[in-house]
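Milestone M4 deliverable, item 7.
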Amino acid sequence: MADRTGDILLGMLDQPAEPIDGHPLIILIHGMTGCETSVYVLSAARHLLDCGYRVLRLNVRGAGPSRPYCSEIYHVGRTADFRRVLWQLPEELTRNGIVAIGYSLGGAMLLKYLGEEGAFAPLRAAASVCAPIDLIATAKQMMRPRNRLYHAYILNGVKAETLGEGARLSAQEREAVRNARTVPEYDDSFIAPRYGYRGGNDYYDLCAPLRYMPEIRVPTMVLAACDDPWIPITHYQAFRWDDNRWLLPVLTPTGGHVGFHGDASNRPWCDLALEKFLERIDSMAA
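Output delivered:
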């Protein structure tokens, strides 16, 4: 990374058995407490490899295999990391362009990056899957009683990541992480002060993808499920999609959170949606 921390991000590059000429490189960005081996990442990678795409499964800062090589940790606002990754990719991988696909928190980071870059984003296309686009509302949703078990799982995971091998935290920061009883409390007591925000709500407000989506100028599919228990769909439904022709909303009645399983196949049908979107992008470029 370019911030003088010495931090290194690792990723797994998958090569298709039969690469198809002209296909762009696909970068997959995992969600909170995920990594290159998350189930949804592996599923998408397998499907896209079968379609002839090269796939880079990226581990964001402090996640998965990147953890021992990073003193810092990821958060939604850390779009400079993705910008640096794109800049460092070798031309042999990017000569046919790049498409980025982000899941959940990774999707939120990607949407924020795309809005920041506007027409200067060096991507052929992008897609987000079940991204939290209103972070304040998502934090409230996560705290609902029905999400108690999921919330506990995520909180324990993010604490383990933050305190893991390679992390350089002060004694006060370590105490704040250990004592956080909720994810919003973790963001308020650790993420916000460490990374220059006035508090958790300030972090959520300034980094919410809703702020940046109107400025996106890359063909971007935005996929979300109306029955997602953790990501409020109301903000997707209220967004003025017609004001930005670069955005393709795909809001499905069912699918859950990064699930999208049907009765006829073990393959998540969001992978099929991504395939069709990529075919559309390829035909536009032809």
